Every structure is written in C-alpha cells, then in structure tokens.
Amino acid sequence: MPSRPHPAHHEVERGRGAPSNAVPQRFGLAERLADGDWLDEVETIDGAAGRRRTTVTEEHPRSILTFNTSPDIGFDRSINAYRGCEHGCIYCFARPTHAYHDLSPGLDFETKLFAKPGAAQLLRKTLAKPGYAPRPIAMGTNTDPYQPIEGRYRITRAILELCLEVRHPVTITTKSDRVLHDLDLLEEMARRRLVAVGISVTSLDPRLSQALEPRAPSPAKRLAALARLAEAGVPTHGMISPVIPAITDEFIERTVARLAEAPVNSAGWIMMRLPHEVAPLFREWLDVHYPDRAAKVMALVQDMRGGRDNEHRFHERFKPQGAWADMLRARFRLALKRSSIPQRRAELDCSAFRPPSLDGQLALF
C-alpha cells in the first residue's frame, strides 16, 4: 500500500494542516470567509494574499492547574501552557476547543495561538496552598508543550524548574525533539523519579508526516529524541499515535522495532479520534491528499466506532471495536513480543514534595 499522499485538484495552504477555516455552527457563530479581516492576517506578495501569519496572544488566567474526574484517563490534573498548536496536526482532538473562543478549529487553531506566560507563578501559588496533595501533573494532554513558540516563551521550562525545585512529579507528552532543550532539567528530575516523557510517532514516512503534521519535527528527529532521553536515564514511552486505518497502520511493526532500538521503557498505540469539528476537517484533508481511498478510510473508522465518525463515551472512546480493531491489536501485540521493549512504566515519587512559599523560597516545615 503506498504511503505517500497524492496530489489533488486543490491544495491546503503550504505549511498548514487544515484545508479550511470554517467556524462551527454548534455555537451559532458566523461563517469564516477568506476575505475581509482575514486578509489583514496573511502575508502579501505583490499585493496578492500569501501565507497566513502565526499570531500569539498572551493571556493571564486566574489558575493554571486543571483537575478532572474522567474515569478512563490515567491522570487527575494537567497543565496546558498554550492554547492552539502550530504543529497543525489535522487529526488533533483539541481543535474543537478553539470554537469556544469564537475561533475556527481549522486554520485559526494552528495560527491564532495563546500563551500563558504567568503559568509557573500561578502553579507556585497552587502548590503553596495548605492541604495540597501532590500527584503527577500531566503536560501535553491538550496542546503540545514543546510547539515552536516554546522556544520564545519558555513556559514549559519555567514549570519544570518549579517542579524540580519543589520535587513535584510531572509527565510530558509531545511530538517534538525540542524537549531536548530541557534535558538538563529532565536528567535531574529523572534521578529523583520526578518525570516521564512520551513522544508520539505517527508514521515513518517524512512526506506523509509533513502532510499530517506540517510543522512538527520529522519522525527521525522524534525517534532520535527518544534515544537521547533514554541514554540520559529519562523514562520514555513511545506512542504510535494516532493510528489512521489504511493510511498509517502499515508502519506499526516497523515503528515498534524502531522504538525498541531507542530503547524506550514502554510503548502503546491509540486509534485516531474525530470529535466534533475534527471529523469534517479530516474528511476535507482526505479529499485533498487521499481522494482515491477517502471513502475506504472513513468506512473503516466508522466500523471501529459503532457506525459513527467518533465514539465519545467514557471507557469506549479509547477502545475501537470490530474486526479491524482486533487485527490492529493483534499486530501490535505480536510486534511487541518480537521486540525487546520491557513495558515498564515509570513509577514517579510523590513523597518528596515540599510546598514552596510565595516569595520563591522553600518552606522550612
């Protein structure tokens, strides 16, 4: 099965993932048209509209640590230092969150970004509260903490510096080798059992990955980052995520083998999810890149999701059903059996936590 995307009669904007910028109708918002104010936000060449510029708005929320009670995910608190993500992954399940702010989950999500520069100080205030009980903070659960603007804002680094200071455990999920910029912190945190890092690899074909994740680092760079983290003693988890039927599933066995070479401590896979506006955006993407098999891909997706584009119910959303899903599980299990991946997840230490004072000094008691 060929893995490279095919050219189509129309193309997405170069370097972006979403083919359009429609505003969802769930909230009664006006349709977004490619004229008017939109033209003020794109570069122009000889008077003609060119590429859309990335803009970053700084925001200052009252809190930064989000708690959840979802019964089918492995963390109860998380931090998202950024909203929107310039990686532009077409399948990103976080895209619909932009609709809550009168913005499109399409191109707006990957070009109109929001940063929270005061995140570390807000977290300090939370950790200093009497009665705070530590459990691992998950970073990268919504948008990537190491997307390109982290190079400018360094918010993720500031949060890690605080967590190392107060001995608070953290888990990181990313698809960027930019995580290596903080290797000095991660090495020290790993020695104290305070961190684990997961990196997702969607395919091994750089051209396909560029179409799926236009501004994310190449698969080779992500695999190299996992190897460097492992060499430094940082617990690592390799994720084949998401698996897209008839597009990326051909890479399962080879990716497991490459993850074993890193070597990662554990590996897993997640089937693509298409909540809300992600489904029509992904259908548009298929029409652009894979018109010859778009119907087949969506038929397989629906076969694994009970006849729908997406399954939203707890305990069901991460468990695709049907013959194709069973086959993918069997393939992954067999590939894992052939590999040397120990499937040993990191056990992080919450016992060393020491609350900070608000002036930046550690409390004595």
Explain what this protein looks like in three dimensions.
It is globular, with a radius of gyration of 21 Å. The protein has 11 helices and 12 strands. With 365 residues, it is an alpha/beta fold. The longest helix is centred in the last third of the chain and has 16 residues, at 323-338. It has helices spanning 107-111, 119-127, 150-153, 155-166, 183-191, 206-212, 219-231, 252-261, 278-289, 294-304, 323-338; strands spanning 42-45, 48-52, 55-58, 66-67, 77-79, 82-83, 112-115, 137-139, 170-174, 195-200, 236-243, 266-271. It has a 7-stranded mixed β-sheet with strand order 4-5-8-9-10-11-12. Mean pLDDT is 89; it is low at 30-49. The protein has one domain (51-338): pyruvate-formate lyase- activating enzyme, CATH 3.80.30.30. This is PA0069 family radical SAM protein. Keywords: Iron, Iron-sulfur, Metal-binding. GO terms for molecular function: catalytic activity; iron-sulfur cluster binding; metal ion binding. Residues 1-22 are annotated as: Disordered. InterPro entries: Elp3/MiaA/NifB-like_rSAM (IPR006638), MJ0683-like (IPR040086), rSAM (IPR007197), rSAM_sf (IPR058240).
Write a brief structural summary.
InterPro entries: Elp3/MiaA/NifB-like_rSAM, MJ0683-like, rSAM, rSAM_sf. Helix content is 30%, strand content 14%.
